[in-house]
Amino acid sequence: MIDHYRALFRQHSWLTDSLCWTVVQPLDEGIALDDLLWRLNSGRDPEERVMDDPMEVAMDEDLALLYVFEGDGAYGFLEGRFGDSLPDELLAALSEDARVWTTSWGFNRTSTIAYAGGGRIRARIDNYVRGQQIDDVPEIFADFPVMLDGLDREDLVGRQSAAFAFIEMATGVGVEGDRLDGEGCRVIVLDTPALWP
Questions:
Q1: Could you tell me if residue 196 is inside a domain?
Q2: pTM score
Q3: What is the C-alpha to C-alpha distance for residues 175 and 168, in angstroms, rounded to an integer?
Q4: Is residue 197 part of a domain?
Q5: Residues near 188 by Cβ (< 8 Å), separated by ≥ 6?
Q6: In 3-state terms, what secondary structure has residue 86?
Q7: How many structural domains does the chain have?
Q8: Does residue 144 sit within a domain?
Q9: In a domain, 35, yes or no
């Protein structure tokens, strides 16, 4: 699975610069995609658009947008422009009746992978991309350092790929590269994004 994400990042190299990938697994069947998007947009309904080459448009028009992926009763949200991690308050709010997995990294190679459930953050690992030693591994992430141990500390794309592979193994939701650029891409445009305080 790491190789799948290596190929994705090779094809869409802009993702290796900065992104935030979040998967929400609702525990209540009443929580729908629209509810989650409303939370991510600071309590407002976001706009759904179909556009060609969304990241180019986002840069030209200064837009905050999300790609949405679904699978196994969960929803994945990919933001590929700012790369900020979810604010703790938003992460906790998204996890009130759900399990939430998220990873992010920025241009300076700071990185975070976190898990939240029951309305609070349960575990977090910082700076895994830069190859720092991970001490005091939370049990929920026990397999993640094992995945990283098989990679060279300088293999930044491999370490980023491992985070995506880990979250997909935990949730069943992954990113499909054919939906990220080209013509007719469906995206969500956030007008007052809670992702970026």
A1: no
A2: 0.93
A3: 9
A4: no
A5: 37, 46, 47, 48, 49, 65, 66, 67, 68
A6: coil
A7: 1
A8: yes
A9: yes
